[in-house]
Design brief:
Layout (H helix, E strand, L loop, with lengths): L4 H19 L6 H16 L2 H14 L4 H4 L1 H28 L24 H8 L4 H6 L3 H15 L4 H27 L1 H16 L2 H31 L4 H18 L6 H10 L4 H14 L3 H16 L6 H17 L5 H15 L7 H6 L2 H23 L10
Helix pairs in contact: 1-10, 2-10, 3-8, 3-9, 3-17, 5-11, 5-14, 5-15, 5-16, 5-19, 11-15, 11-19, 12-13, 12-19, 13-14, 13-19, 14-19, 15-16, 15-17, 16-17
Protein name: Sodium:dicarboxylate symporter
GO molecular function: symporter activity
Main location: membrane
């Protein structure tokens, strides 16, 4: 029987942690494995900045379709942004609480040179630094925030030029993104080896402290998923006309599919069946629900915030209020521009730019992917619940006459 990719990565993590702890910091194999892990990680980091640029341009630069011009679609997107922002703030708050007391020693070799980020410069300098005088130089220096800002402005500008020319640029960026995703896919084929090397390295020098923090990260993700799911159940109870008991009966099959498949897309048929069971009008549901599946992954900003703060703690970095605000902002933006990417690829496309933007090294980020399976079950169940809950609230009052939509 073929072992799934996530199972092979998890096996690499467990083997690396165990053997690294057993071998200790004086192991003769440590330099070789450090090199292997470093090369693999560099290959994984290589496409990140151009990929983020291409995804922002393709996601925001294309012309809006007929669904996007409808009133219900605009209301849905507004609701998505509002709730995603709340999810990001919740993730930052939960991460700050759950990871505040952790100290992991023995990782100086993979940490940044300092253990605390420098104080923020004056506001004027901060704002000037956001504007990339030379976007190519910013990309070369790994300055992700100016690159994202340039990509946003570029994408918005494309919507104000001749549509045919804009589509040509968007299609080219889509091709670039597709090619970069292929490269990431190739790198991930050897992820079990890379994760094994990284895990061996950190366990040899820090013991099981890293493993303990990863377990605590899993707990934080599960707690976050449960809280988000409960919040949208409560939202239905407060804001929807539909009876809560009716909603819970209708959503349960979709939640079960989400929990078992860890895929909102695979859960879409069950979600559509839930909306039919709730008696929602078919046409507005046909607009809102696909948008929700594509754009409204409510657990993603929370997960990005938790992972960034856990990664900062592993690196001995304290994030200030400004950095935490930037984490929340980029978590929402990344959630919107990586819609539809495969889970393992979207993990790096979403998490790495946020960490880099606030000065957190991403050398240990692949270890978080290895333990993502269990949290992702709860996260996907929360996503599906939120999708149907928001669809219910937005569409249950809409008449079935399409002229009134």
């Amino acid at each position: 029987m073929k072992i799934p990719a996530v199972g092979r990565i998890l096996a690499g993590l467990i083997a690396g942690l165990g053997l690294g702890y057993w071998a200790g910091p004086n192991s003769a194999a440590l330099p070789t494995l450090q090199t292997i892990g470093g090369v693999w990680l560099d290959a994984l980091r290589m496409p990140i900045i151009p990929l983020v640029f291409a995804l922002v341009v393709t996601g925001l630069g294309s012309g809006s379709g007929s669904g996007g011009s409808s009133r219900v679609a605009r209301r849905a997107i507004g609701a998505f942004v509002l709730f995603l922002s709340a999810s990001a703030l919740f993730g930052v708050a939960l991460g700050s609480t759950m990871f505040s007391g952790w100290q992991v020693t023995g990782l100086d070799a993979v940490r940044a040179t300092g253990t605390k980020l420098p104080d923020l410069p004056p506001l004027g300098e901060t704002l000037r630094a956001l504007v990339p005088v030379n976007p190519i130089a910013s990309a070369a220096q790994g300055a992700i925030v100016p690159v994202v800002l340039f990509a946003l402005l570029f994408a918005i500008a494309l919507r104000h030029i001749d549509r045919a020319r804009a589509d040509g640029i968007v299609n080219a960026c889509q091709g670039i993104a597709d090619a970069l995703l292929v490269i990431i896919g190739w790198v991930l084929l050897v992820a079990p080896i890379g994760v094994f090397a990284l895990a061996f390295d950190v366990a040899a020098r820090s013991g099981f402290a890293v493993g303990a923090l990863l377990v605590w990260y899993v707990v934080a993700r599960v707690v976050g998923g449960i809280v988000l799911l409960a919040a949208f159940v409560l939202l239905v109870a407060v804001a929807a006309r539909t009876r809560l008991s009716t909603f819970l009966r209708a959503i349960l099959p979709a939640q079960s599919v989400a929990f078992s498949t860890q895929s909102s897309l695979a859960s879409l048929p069950a979600m559509l069946e839930a909306t039919r069971a709730l008696g929602l009008p078919a046409r507005p549901v046909g607009t809102v629900l696909p948008l929700a599946v594509a754009l409204f992954r409510i657990s993603a900003p929370t997960a990005i915030g938790l992972a960034t703060l856990a990664l900062a703690r592993l690196n001995g970095i304290e994030l200030g209020l400004g950095q935490l605000g930037l984490v929340a902002l980029l978590a929402v933006l990344n959630n919107l521009v990586i819609a539809g990417l495969p889970n393992q690829i979207s993990f790096f496309a979403a998490y790495a730019p946020v960490a880099l933007a606030v000065g957190v090294p991403i050398e240990l980020l692949p270890l978080f992917l290895a333990v993502d399976t269990i949290p992702d079950m709860f996260a996907t169940a929360a996503n599906v619940t939120a999708d149907v809950a928001v669809t219910t609230i937005l569409t249950e009052r809409i008449p079935t006459d399409p002229d009134e939509i």
